[in-house]
């Protein structure tokens, strides 16, 4: 009977969000509670469990999970130390393992540690030994480091954006681990660093130019001798030394092919880098479009305040501009503001409340905006998300009606890459003339397929696609598009565990 250990640690951060994140921003589970958390979900862990569960010659031993409620600011040093201690302690307490699956993200960052995933993998190696196969799944927005590859046998990454292949990615990781355990694969990995940061609609893998890179990687992975392949476009907001894009290819013992294919992927990506950038509309022009549009819903995409990318979610920039412009349509806007929620709860449903919204966590960018509103709904803020079925917790939540503007005000950030927050609080986006979506991209059917206009707004924020506005200080320079005339001399770095050589 084979013993497979399973552990999870996932968070994506924006270094430009001044509000540090902490331990309480994670859902933490130990042992069998990890399995229970994922049983009804469509996550990587659930996908891996589906593959392992089909075998009667192995047992899965869940050890630990720390999954961020959503992305956020840099993790406090003490809180990362606690998570790392629990993660590694659970591995120490586990029975001897034959193989290990780790579900990680890749774009964590803590105070004093720019590569938390690499640190966890290095320490896990010390505990588990050099001969235990470790396969890791990662988000394609991860920052892929040499340390992560040096201490794992192989990696797999999402192949979709917006991400709809959580479950399938876990399945791919589990199948690869089983092949390694059965002696059917001797993985060798080639990685090519690309000095580029990209953010825009062309990254949508189903319709955009970046999809060509992913389909090329998928062809490699499906081919004879191909084990895994993909592209990491990093998270431009996780400002750490290794930030950038990467191609990677894992083959079955063929280092020359892995290097050749990874170089091809990298060179193809570099050639189209300028076309992968977002086309943004100024805030003034976006409001003018909204005012001029009738007969449908205008979606204003405020990716600069995208909680799923690490922003605080407390931007009042678009709300303020709508009010100042005298917009009269029905608008639906999410915002994070715990004091405003407390004021609404104190007032009670049906009563009016005078409060301010915005600028609670990121006061350098946003100023609180006074509003008078009627309290329409109060809720605990726990709901099942429509993307993969896990429970999200926005904390106490209030729906406020300020004239024709409906505000869904939460006590803590939750991801907004689908409609879950709106639906859970009785709001159907189709019933509004304008909806603010605080996510760079959602699945096509959620907004883009039916909106009259969808406008990518150049608003301020910690996750702005206007990368020049952020002020990167830690990533290696020069890098596109922050610097002119960036040179690119592609070079593949190979990684292979000693047991396969």
Walkthrough of the structure:
- The protein has 501 residues and is α/β, with parallel strands linked by helices.
- It folds into two domains: 2-276 and 490-500, 3-Layer(aba) Sandwich (Rossmann fold), CATH 3.40.50.2300; 281-465, no CATH class.
- Helix content is 26%, strand content 26%.
- The chain contains twelve helices and 23 strands.
- The protein has helices spanning 32-38, 44-52, 77-93, 116-128, 146-150, 166-181, 210-222, 255-271, 283-292, 317-325, 338-347, 420-424; strands spanning 2-10, 13-14, 26-30, 58-68, 72-73, 99-104, 134-138, 154-157, 187-194, 226-232, 245-252, 281-282, 298-301, 331-336, 352-357, 369-379, 382-384, 391-393, 397-402, 405-410, 434-437, 453-458, 492-495.
- Strands 12-22-13-21-14-20-19-16-15 form a nine-stranded mixed beta sheet.
- Helix 3 (77-93) packs parallel to helix 4 (116-128) and helix 9 packs across helix 10 (317-325).
- The longest helix is centred in the first third of the chain and has 17 residues, at 77-93.
- The chain starts with a strand and ends in a 6-residue tail after the last strand.
């Amino acid at each position: 009977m084979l013993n497979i250990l399973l552990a999870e640690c996932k968070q994506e951060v924006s270094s430009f969000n001044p509000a540090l994140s902490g331990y309480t921003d994670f859902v933490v589970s130990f042992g069998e509670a990890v399995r229970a958390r994922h049983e009804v979900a469509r996550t990587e862990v659930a996908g891996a469990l589906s593959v392992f569960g089909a075998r009667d010659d192995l047992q899965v031993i869940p050890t630990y999970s720390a999954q961020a409620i959503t992305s956020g600011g840099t993790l406090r040093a003490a809180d990362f130390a606690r998570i790392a201690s629990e993660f590694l302690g659970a591995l120490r307490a586990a029975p001897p393992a034959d193989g290990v699956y780790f579900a990680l993200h890749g774009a964590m960052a803590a105070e004093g540690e720019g590569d938390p995933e690499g640190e966890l993998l290095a320490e896990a190696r010390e505990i588990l030994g050099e001969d235990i196969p470790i396969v890791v799944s990662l988000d394609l927005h991860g920052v892929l480091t040499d340390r992560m590859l040096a201490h794992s046998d192989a990696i797999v990454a999402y192949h979709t954006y917006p991400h709809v292949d959580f479950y399938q990615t876990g399945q791919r990781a589990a199948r690869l681990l089983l092949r390694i355990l059965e002696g059917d694969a001797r993985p060798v990995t080639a990685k090519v660093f690309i000095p580029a940061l990209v953010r825009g609609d062309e990254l949508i893998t189903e319709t955009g130019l970046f999809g060509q890179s992913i389909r090329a990687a998928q062809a490699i992975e499906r081919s004879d001798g191909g084990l895994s392949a993909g592209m990491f476009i990093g998270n431009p907001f996780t400002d750490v030394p290794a930030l950038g894009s990467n191609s990677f290819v894992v083959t079955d013992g063929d280092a020359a092919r892995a290097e050749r294919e990874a170089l091809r992927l990298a060179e193809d990506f570099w050639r189209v880098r300028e076309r992968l950038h977002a086309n943004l509309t100024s805030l003034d022009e976006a409001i003018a479009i909204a005012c001029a549009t009738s007969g449908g819903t205008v979606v204003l995409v405020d990716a600069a305040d995208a909680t799923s990318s690490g922003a605080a979610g407390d931007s009042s920039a678009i709300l303020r501009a709508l009010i100042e412009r005298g917009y009269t349509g029905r608008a639906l806007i999410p915002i994070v503001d715990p004091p405003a929620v407390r004021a609404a709860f104190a007032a009670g449903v049906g009563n009016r409340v005078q409060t301010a919204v915005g600028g609670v966590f990121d006061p350098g960018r946003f100023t609180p905006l006074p509003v008078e509103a009627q309290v329409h709904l109060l809720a605990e803020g726990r709901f099942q998300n429509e993307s993969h079925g896990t429970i999200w917790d926005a904390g106490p939540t209030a729906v406020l009606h300020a004239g024709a503007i409906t505000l869904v005000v939460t006590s803590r950030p939750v991801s907004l890459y689908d409609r879950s927050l709106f639906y859970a609080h009785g709001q159907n986006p189709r019933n509004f003339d304008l909806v603010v979506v605080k996510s760079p991209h959602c699945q096509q059917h959620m907004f883009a397929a039916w909106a009259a206009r969808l406008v990518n707004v150049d608003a301020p924020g910690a996750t702005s696609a206007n990368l020049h506005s952020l002020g990167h200080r830690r990533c290696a320079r020069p890098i596109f598009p922050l610097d002119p005339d960036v040179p690119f001399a592609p070079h593949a770095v190979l990684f292979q565990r000693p047991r396969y050589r």
